[in-house]
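Quick one, probably user error.
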């Protein structure tokens, strides 16, 4: 894949409802990686990601039941819910990360290597790590709220498939400088992003979430401005990924 394009990582935070329409302008002008909980809402808005990331062994398969999703490419961890993989078998399945000896051995038998990503704990941080592993240097983050909004957690109606963790709340700096409420796990993901930005000084991360938590070290701008500034030329990432030569032949 060409590297002189931005990667847009789409998480499922409630703020995604503000700027999902802008993603249509970025199609074929950036590599769009969406987390599993965002895809159902994206498809409902006629936004088709180039790649879906999923890593959870307990992920609800109903998130992938829309026929428009089944043919999309899926990047997975080796421990992912096998029912999700079965449901997505019409598209390209990419083993993006895995630390199981079983999978390592299968790959070694054909002279290949199973990569292990340092994922940070959430599906969105895994998508971020995947973009880094693919050698992209400009990453645009959308829907990565890392904070709570009263009454609703995620864009669209996917809350029906998810359970909110009953945890204590804490306060962090918000996207616009205000105080926002978050949880220990969300804050840990926030600190992971900030750590990665300190380590990888050669990358530019643009927080285009337009809500939620402030990410220290990232450039904060609207998604519309980021797309206007960085998404200039065209390349069909979705087609290129689907037509990559597979590791294993049937």
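Nope, works fine. Designed sequence:
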């Amino acid at each position: 894949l060409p590297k002189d394009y931005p990667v847009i990582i789409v998480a499922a935070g409630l703020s995604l409802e503000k700027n999902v329409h802008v993603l249509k302008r970025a199609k074929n002008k950036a590599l769009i990686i969406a987390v599993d909980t965002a895809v159902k809402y994206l498809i409902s808005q006629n936004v088709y990601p180039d790649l879906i990331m999923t890593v959870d062994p307990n992920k609800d398969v109903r998130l992938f039941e829309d026929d428009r999703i089944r043919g999309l490419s899926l990047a997975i961890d080796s421990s992912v819910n096998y029912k999700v993989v079965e449901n997505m078998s019409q598209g390209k399945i990419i083993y993006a990360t895995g630390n199981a000896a079983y999978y390592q051995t299968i790959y070694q038998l054909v002279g290949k290597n199973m990569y292990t990503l340092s994922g940070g704990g959430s599906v969105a941080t895994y998508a971020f790590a995947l973009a880094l592993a693919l050698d992209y240097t400009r990453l645009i983050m959308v829907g990565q709220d890392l904070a709570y909004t009263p009454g609703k957690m995620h864009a669209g109606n996917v809350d029906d498939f998810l359970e909110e963790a009953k945890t204590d709340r804490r306060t962090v700096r918000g996207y616009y400088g205000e105080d926002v409420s978050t949880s220990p796990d969300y804050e840990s993901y926030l600190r992971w992003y900030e750590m990665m930005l300190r380590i990888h000084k050669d990358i530019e991360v643009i927080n285009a979430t337009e809500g939620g938590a402030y990410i220290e070290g990232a450039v904060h701008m609207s998604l519309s401005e980021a797309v206007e500034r960085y998404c200039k030329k065209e390349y069909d990432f979705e087609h290129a990924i689907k037509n990559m030569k597979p590791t294993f032949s049937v």
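The two ends are 24 Å apart (CA to CA).
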